[in-house]
Write a structure and sequence with these properties.
The complex is a heterodimer of chains A (about 200) and B (about 170). Chain A is α+β, with helices and mostly antiparallel strands and about 200 residues long. Chain A has 5 helices and 10 strands; from the N terminus they run αββββαβαβαββββα. The radius of gyration of chain B is 17 Å and the shape is globular. The two termini of chain B are about 20 Å apart.
C-alpha cells in the first residue's frame, strides 16, 4: 500500500514538473541514443552525452583562433554561468571545437586558464572524423574560408561556421537553440532554470 | 518555439539580405552621422580600445572606436611587434547562414567627423600568431595606419572574458 502510494505521488510530481515546463521548451532533437568519444581540456576521454548526463547542459561550438564571434560566444556562456549563481552546480557547460587540428587538449587547457573558466566547464575536441560526425548531428556547419602561409612558413586558416548554442536537458534531449554569440544571457539562464 | 523563432528572425533577415560579398559596414558596425561644424574634431582620434586575453601562439582581435577628423580617412593597416601578421578584418555572414572573417577590402572608411565602431561581429584588427600570451591587465602597443592621418599609436588594454562588453548596436 505504501509502495503504491509512493509511486502515485512520484508520478504526480513528475507530471506536475513536466506540465510546468514552458511550451516553447519542447523537444527539438533527441541525442539520448548517440555516442561520441571526445577529449576534454585535461586529455580525459569523455563519452558524449553519457558522461555529461544527469544535468541540463548548455552546449556550444567554437574554434579558439576566432577572436570575434567565438570570443563573444564564450563571453555569453560565461555571463549565463554567472547569472545562474549557485545554480551553476546543476548545469554542465560544454564547448566543442570544430578545429581539432589546432585545438588540441593542451590548447584548450591554455584557453581555459586564460579565460579563467572553472571545473564545471568541459572544453572538448577529438579526432577530425568524430568531430565532423558530432557537428553534423547537432547541425553545426563549418568550412575553411581562407588559407594563407605566413613568412615563418606556418599555415593559417579561418573557418566560417554556424553561430549556435543548444540547451539540452538531463536526458539528452535538445530543447532550445540560440545564437551562441548574441542571444541574451539572462534569457538563456531563465530557460535553464525552467529545467530545475 | 515561438521565442526561438523570434530570436532567430534577425539572423535570418540578415542572412537573407547579405551575400558573401563585402558586407555593408552599417549593418555590422555602428557609424554615427557627422557632427555639426562647431564640434568637428581637429584630427582623427581613437578611443576605447580593447582586446581579449589570448594564450601564446593564439589569435587576437582588437576593437576600438575611430572618430573622424575634418576630412574623410581610411584605416588601411596596423602593426604590432608581438604578432607575426596583422590584418584589418571584418566579420561577415554568408548566404547560407555561416559567420566568417576576412580582410576588409580597401580598409575601413572613417567619414569626416563621424565615429566608426570596431566591435565584435563587425570590423576588428586581427593579431595572428602572437609570440607571447596577451594576459589580462597587459597593454599592447599597436600602430594604426591611415591613408590621410598616417601612423597613429594606440595602447590596447587586454581584458578578461568578463570585462568584454557587448557591441552597443545590440
Amino acid at each position: 500500500m505504501r509502495t503504491s502510494l509512493a509511486l502515485f505521488l512520484a508520478s504526480s510530481m513528475l507530471l506536475v514538473a513536466c506540465e510546468q515546463r514552458p511550451d516553447y521548451l519542447a523537444v527539438e532533437d533527441d541525442l539520448t541514443d548517440t555516442s561520441w568519444t571526445l577529449l576534454d581540456q585535461d586529455s580525459t576521454a569523455v563519452t558524449f552525452p553519457a558522461d555529461l548526463g544527469g544535468k541540463p547542459m548548455l552546449l556550444s561550438a567554437v574554434y579558439t583562433n576566432c577572436p570575434d564571434v567565438c570570443i563573444m560566444t564564450m563571453r555569453n556562456l560565461r555571463e549565463v554561468h554567472q547569472a545562474l549563481g549557485a545554480d551553476t552546480a546543476n548545469v554542465t557547460f560544454t564547448v566543442v571545437s570544430f578545429d581539432p587540428a589546432r585545438d588540441t587538449p593542451s590548447r584548450l587547457r591554455a584557453y581555459a586558464d586564460t579565460w579563467r573558466i572553472g571545473p564545471g566547464w568541459r572544453l572538448l575536441t577529438g579526432d577530425s572524423t568524430t568531430v565532423a560526425s558530432f557537428m553534423d548531428r547537432i547541425d553545426v556547419r563549418y568550412e575553411i574560408s581562407r588559407r594563407d602561409t605566413l613568412l615563418s612558413g606556418d599555415t593559417i586558416y579561418s573557418i566560417s561556421h554556424t553561430d549556435k548554442a543548444l540547451l539540452i536537458d538531463a536526458d539528452g534531449q535538445v530543447l532550445e537553440t540560440y545564437s551562441g554569440s548574441a542571444s541574451p544571457a539572462e534569457q538563456i539562464a531563465g530557460d535553464i532554470r525552467e529545467l530545475f | 518555439m515561438l521565442r526561438r523563432s523570434l530570436l532567430l528572425l534577425p539572423a535570418l533577415l540578415l542572412a537573407a539580405c547579405q551575400t558573401d560579398t563585402p558586407a555593408d559596414p552599417s549593418e555590422t558596425t555602428e557609424i554615427t552621422p557627422p557632427m555639426d561644424a562647431s564640434s568637428t574634431p581637429d584630427a582623427l582620434s581613437v578611443s576605447d580600445p580593447f582586446t581579449a586575453a589570448v594564450p601564446a601562439q593564439g589569435t587576437g582581435g582588437v576593437f576600438l572606436t575611430l572618430t573622424g577628423g575634418p576630412t574623410p580617412d581610411t584605416l588601411i593597416g596596423a602593426s604590432f611587434a608581438g604578432a607575426e601578421q596583422v590584418e584589418v578584418h571584418e566579420t561577415y555572414d554568408t548566404e547560407d547562414g555561416l559567420r566568417g572573417m576576412r580582410e576588409a577590402e580597401g580598409g575601413i572608411p572613417v567619414p569626416a567627423a563621424s565615429t566608426v565602431e570596431l566591435a565584435p561581429g563587425g570590423y576588428h584588427i586581427m593579431l595572428i600568431n602572437l609570440a607571447e600570451a596577451a594576459t589580462e591587465g597587459d597593454t599592447l602597443d599597436l600602430t594604426l595606419e591611415f591613408t590621410q592621418a598616417g601612423p597613429l599609436e594606440v595602447r590596447v588594454p587586454v581584458l578578461g572574458l568578463d570585462q568584454i562588453q557587448r557591441p552597443s548596436a545590440e
